[in-house]
Amino acid sequence: MYNASTPPHEWQKILWKKQPFPDNHLPPSFLSSLQRNINLKQYTYTSLFKTVLPVTQHLSNTALFLSTFAHLKTGRLDPRVLVYLGSGLSILGFGIYEISSPQWGHRLAQALKSSILVFLALASLAPVLRTLTAATSDDSIWALAAGLFILHTVLADYTPERIRVVRDRVDGESQGGLTSVLSINAAVSASVVLASRLQTDIAVFSLMLYAVQSFALLPVLRQRLQRYPILLFALTCFVSGVSLAALPSSTLVLPLATLLGLVTFGSPAVLVWSQRYKNRIRGPWDPAIPQLNAKKD
């Protein structure tokens, strides 16, 4: 609305009145209401370091699985040893998961039943999986497995258990749960095509059992341990160390160590450094945000 008390030659923020100023005129008071970085959350290196640990652990776990496949294919790893080690570590992980639960000890029978069913299912499917891709070339298998593992890594759920549960309750449906299921499906599919390149049924069975333990069970334990940063750091160091030691060639140690180092230590530092260039401005000229499906009183 026009203000009669305004001096005749003072610029006004209106369009309906012709004023003695050029169209691109900007008075000194035009940016007086400018606001910069309102409600900006400043991240610290420590908090980002804790956040990136699940990503490092996930990359190390994937590298360890690929190394295990290479050792099985070349015959340097006995499949029975893999079954024993995987089963023992799964029992240990289940114990840690149950101890950290408020009501532990109530899911032992269900876990035992599920484990027996998984054992029987994989044992019966091993002969079929071994010859599943017999008519497919190795190059196609490697490319398909690489694409599936990349998809698995991108879609994996790296959020803590508590945050994921609260988010699902607020949203009404689990968007993170959908991507997590797709991630597990991609990992299992990649494991199937790799297992089809092994020579014996017991090798196929051991690799598929290890895939279930690595890509379905270990992420659940990781999400629970994100409540305890020290335990999560210990798990990440253990998996990373084993993945580096289990590489089939010593020439791969430096690239993998560099990748893990950049992800673990470099990415938080880059994000903290880039915060100084954050410049989000707000003012009275910002467009209104439409409210769709707004509730009426």
UniProtKB/TrEMBL annotation:
GO terms for cellular component: glycosylphosphatidylinositol-N-acetylglucosaminyltransferase (GPI-GnT) complex. It holds the Pfam family GPI2. GO terms for biological process: GPI anchor biosynthetic process. The chain crosses the membrane at residues 81-99, 111-129, 141-158, 202-221, 228-247, 253-273. Keywords: GPI-anchor biosynthesis, Membrane, Transmembrane, Transmembrane helix. Pathway: Glycolipid biosynthesis; glycosylphosphatidylinositol-anchor biosynthesis. It comes from the Eukaryota. PANTHER family: PHOSPHATIDYLINOSITOL GLYCAN, CLASS C (PTHR12982), PHOSPHATIDYLINOSITOL N-ACETYLGLUCOSAMINYLTRANSFERASE SUBUNIT C (PTHR12982:SF0). This is Phosphatidylinositol N-acetylglucosaminyltransferase. It comes from Rhizoctonia solani. The lineage of its organism: Eukaryota, Fungi, Dikarya, Basidiomycota, Agaricomycotina.
